[in-house]
Amino acid sequence: MANGPEQFRQWAAGGRLGIRAGQHGATDDDGSVIHRMAFAGRTSTGDLQDPTLSMPRQYSNTQLALPEGGVITAHFWDIESGRKDTADRGQGNLHEQFDIPVPRDGGIQDLLAEALRPDRRFDYVICESIERIARRTHAGTDIEQRLEKAGVRLLAADEPFRLDHTGNRKEKRATQTLTRRVKQGIAEFYVMEMLEKSWDGFAVHTEAGYNVGKACYGYRAKLVSHPVPAKRARGQKKTLLEPHPDQAATVQRIFWLRNEERLSYQAIADHLNLDLSLNPPPVPVDPRRAVGRWTPSNVREILNQPKYTGHMVWNRRARKSNGGKYNPPSDWVWSEQPVHESLITVETFLTAQKRPPRETSRRTTVLNSHPETKRSYLFRSYLCCDHCDRRMFGKTRRVAAYYVCAPKKGYREPTHPTAGSFFVREQGLIEHLNTFLNEHVFGPYRRSLLVSSDLDASLGREREQKIAALRRDIVEVGTRSKRLIRSLELMDDPDDEMIADITTRRAELRDEQSRLRDQLAELEAQNLLTPNPGLLDALPTGTIDIQDLPEELARSLFESLRLEIRYNKAHHRATYRITLVGQSLAATSNAVRGTLTARSTRAHRPAGQTEPARQLQRAGSVPIFSVPPAGFEPATSWFQGVCRSCPGG
After folding, report:
1. Sorted alphabetically, which PANTHER family does this protein's record hold (predicted)?
2. Tell me, what DSSP letter sits at residue 311?
3. Of 239, 237, 243, which Cα lies nearest the Cα of 217?
4. Is the pLDDT of residue 354 over 80?
5. Which residues pair with 577 in a beta bridge?
6. Quick one: average pLDDT of 48-77?
7. What pTM was estimated for this model as a whole?
8. CA max distance for the chain
9. Residue from 138, 173, 168, 131 nearest 153 by CA
């Protein structure tokens, strides 16, 4: 059926001569129809695929599918994942690394931008297959709809389509739409299934103890034969982890400095940089980026690395989907059991994650540079909330100094005792700190207080004997295992049954040795908490009144004693804790001696206590001894006060 008289047809087509654009193409001077088309291509990656082969193949297939009069007038293609959101597409420059014999006018963003221009060079977009536009259905249909709103139709070479139609009947595209949606669903299913299988494969790979990527600092790669014969024949290997002879001790040293010295990342880096031969700095994957020293980011990366616990961990970072940002720990994949030699315990790792550094605030008594600052606060950076571990900040109400915990609404812990903020008065903290120091730290009966609290010498001796026995048993089991292998070597012609028996026995010995090592590690961890009252003898005796000291001298005393104060609002109780480090014990003793009076009967002043001080419960102290990890120089011993509730206040 004709579409009206010739004059109306010319008017509907625009009435122009030469090549002219329209909804159904353009016409040349001789009246032949020309369909201007833009080629759209995409290949996922440059390492798992070969863009120099994929892109020419896509371009060739689209040319073979061109209808009569079809001409490719523009070329848009990218080398990137088709699972990205549309807004993130077309931003890469990976195409610059390849010599691909297909012209390129831009990427997907350039294609969408030109489609909106009135002087665009195309009326259609053609691709090899619809998954080349996007691997996700919603992203592919979004691009398709944006092109259609601009008057540009999206075609695929492997779908049925027609560009010419006669009469006044509407073009039929139902079959093409059905085919496209089915293919989009299949493409998205394929990608999701492959990702799920890949995830499961990496999870099993992790549980078996195999490492992905470069070995983390402190370990070195131990290459083993690939379990698949075909891949083993091609020389492919898998990677396990074993301690690095030069770096493992540095990892232990870093965790020690963080947990026991409570140093910041920068302070730990400065400490390690004092001896780079003892603490070799890490080398990145690209050695050209190495700075030759320790940086705070290096220290943070080591303290956040759970592989040092002996467990293999994967999926800590979303390197492809989220720009390398850390995933939440709930998404990490852990091996159920330790699969390589550990450098630290799980408890040590967890402590490092929640251990706040000592240097978290200004250490001087100089006022803050803020123009509204009017005073400083004695316990700034030493007082924390016992409910949320946040530092409490100073605030003046009338003329008295208080400390406040006021977390924001979205960051408030469920166990926080009040819906808003709460206060504790500085005067009460000072008076009970005097009691704590004068009785448990500088008092003449400090040793008896310690002994009556937790000290049990017989248990300590028994534990030491067990540790020595376990070490002997581990050596003995290792010797038996070597003898077993030696006996197999001396046999002239062992049969299969004998080999199987020896293999089984050797596995039993390995399991026994692993069990003994676990027991040894547990006892050694307990030994770290063995009380050592002898450390207190290095401190002088006397009495002290914090309120009579200049603020600078008082804060110097707090720093030398590694003072920590935690306030529990629910029980209205302050907990005081100090840490003595054997390495600096002499300097600590000198600092303390300068603040003590020779003889004084004022351990605390009951008559002058304020109402908040009388109501505030106080806590005593139990010194605890610990030994440093192997290889830590100089050797350090320490004790920390563990709080015990006692009457008074």
Report:
1. DNA-INVERTASE FROM LAMBDOID PROPHAGE, SERINE RECOMBINASE PINE-RELATED
2. -
3. 243
4. no
5. 564
6. 89
7. 0.48
8. 121
9. 173
